[in-house]
Structure formats: C-alpha cells, structure tokens
Amino acid sequence: MAIEVRNVSKAFGDFQALGDVSVVVPDGSLTALLGPSGGGKSTLLRVIAGLETADAGEVLFDGEPVTGVPPQHRDVGFVFQHYAAFKHMTVRDNVAFGLKIRKRPKDEIATRVDELLKLVHLDGFAGRYPAQLSGGQRQRMALARALAVEPKVLLLDEPFGALDAKVRKELRDWLRRLHDEVHVTTVFVTHDQEEALEVAEQIVVINEGRIEQAGSPDELYESPATPFVMGFVGPVSQLGDQYVRPHDIDIHLEPVDGGLQAQIEHVARVGFEARVELHLADGAPVSVLVTRQQAAEQELEAGQIVWLRAHRFHAFAEGELASA
C-alpha cells in the first residue's frame, strides 16, 4: 500500500512539530524517517497511524484519504520502542492477541501464530513470558504481534532504540531480511544514520518539522541537498567553504596546489581504517579517513605537518548545491 502525506502541519501549543510536510512512501517499500530528537519524525509517524490528528493537510493510502479514519480501521501495525507486551501472557498469547479480539477461528489463529513465531525465530519460546526473553527477543515478539493481523502498513517508532549496539545491529539485519519476505509497506523512525543507511530503501530526513530531503541512501549520501543533510547522513569535514567526506580528502607530506596546511593531533587505527584528526592553521578541526596501509606508508603521527586537498567536495552557497 502506497502512503502519501500532503501538506501536513501539526502544532502542540506554541511548538510547531510539523510544518507543511509532504512525502510519498512507495508501495512495499522500507522507508526510514531520519532526524534529530524533536525534529518531527515520530509525530509524522503517529499522524500516518491516526494516533495524532493533523491541524492541516491529509494522509492518503493508495490514493484514498484516511485523515478522518480512526487508527483501528487503517489496517496499520504499530511497534513502539518499549515493546508494550502483556506481561501476564505467554509469547504465543501476546502474538495471538490481535487475532483473538477480531474473533478469528481458533485453528486459523494457531496456524498464523505458528507461522509468525517461526518467521521471527521464536518458535522455541512460545510458552515463555516476556520477562523471560532478552530485549531483542521481546522486540521480535512485538513485530510478530503487529504482523499477526496482516496489516497493509507497518509503522515502527525507534524499534531498536532501547537495545545495545550489538543487538541493534543484529535486528537491523533481521528486519531487512524480514521485509524481503513479507513485503509490507514499512516506515520506521530512527535518529541513527547508520541504521537508516543500512536498512532503508528510501530515507526521509526531517529537521525542525520540515523535510530536508527524501531519496535513496546513495542519493542522500552522494548528493545531499543541504549542509544539514550532508552532516546528518554520514561523517563530514569542512575545508574552507567545501563540505567533504573524510575519505574524500588526500593527505600530502609536501605542499601541493590547492592544499591547506594542517597539523595532525591524533591517529586512531580501527580495523582496516585509520582515522586522522587534524586542525587547520585557523584552528578548525578536520577528520580524514585513510587505510591503515596508507597511514603506515606516510608514517602519520601526532604533531606532523601535512597538506590536505579534497578530490571530491560539496559547496553550498545560498542553499544551492555545487559538487566537484
């Protein structure tokens, strides 16, 4: 099911959470709403779900307005950050809950629950209670419960935000594989750039209640429309008026045309890469990413004077983008 948000605005008192927001979520896509805390992404998700009412604008599902349709009639599954599990129910009963209140036949419920528990790799945990599960397992249970009623849209609000980094990484990979199997239109909120870049097919960057840019991960990373997008979607350094990805800066040991003199403050070797922290003559900090081999060959070390030149950069002037 395709989702279209047209000119939606929402205020809470004097705070403008959304201002004239328009965005399209293609049918069957996996879309991330990415932005800083308080930027409006969760409010937009709740407006799509019908949990918040927009002050202006409309939401359409497959071209049909749903602005006045209550949440329970929108065919939407919603997963919150904090699981919202029924603690007194087993995993099986939690997953079956939505089907039971819809009075589906018992045989149908049992079959559907078995399918979902297998899909989310919890088929061996059906008789356990939420307190007996890890955080990642509880979140997978919550996803199974949301999918049980076969929603046409799945909405996830910071689904992995309460988990540690290792579990988040595992669940990101799992969500991507799950989406490939179920193909339900999915929108998830995150402030984690890496999460959005790894998982989403489309990223919508939201800041201060407005859409900064929407596009594929590659489009946003390679062709950011604004300095905010470039700085939020991936690492960025600045050489004068040039916005540069750290891996697009060359380090030279001798003066070079167009190069800026800098002094190395620290070299951190992490796996295959080496992260070189420097400061320019005016004191501005710069981060450069090179291979460990290059760092070794150039014998890069703290205190060393080098020259920096970007081989690819973005220059933003009066809101317009120029790339080289």
Automatic annotation (TrEMBL):
PROSITE patterns: ABC_TRANSPORTER_1, ABC_TRANSPORTER_2. The lineage of its organism: Bacteria, Bacillati, Actinomycetota, Thermoleophilia, Solirubrobacterales. Keywords: ATP-binding, Cell membrane, Membrane, Nucleotide-binding, Sulfate transport, Translocase, Transport. It comes from the Bacteria. Residues 3-233 form the ABC transporter domain. This is Sulfate ABC transporter ATP-binding protein. It comes from Svornostia abyssi. Pfam families: ABC_tran, TOBE_3. CDD domains: ABC_CysA_sulfate_importer (cd03296). SUPFAM superfamilies: MOP-like, P-loop containing nucleoside triphosphate hydrolases. InterPro entries: AAA+_ATPase, ABC_SmlMolc_Importer, ABC_transporter-like_ATP-bd, ABC_transporter-like_CS, Mo/tungstate-bd_C_term_dom, P-loop_NTPase, Sulph_transpt1, TOBE-like. NCBIfam families: 3a0106s01 (TIGR00968).
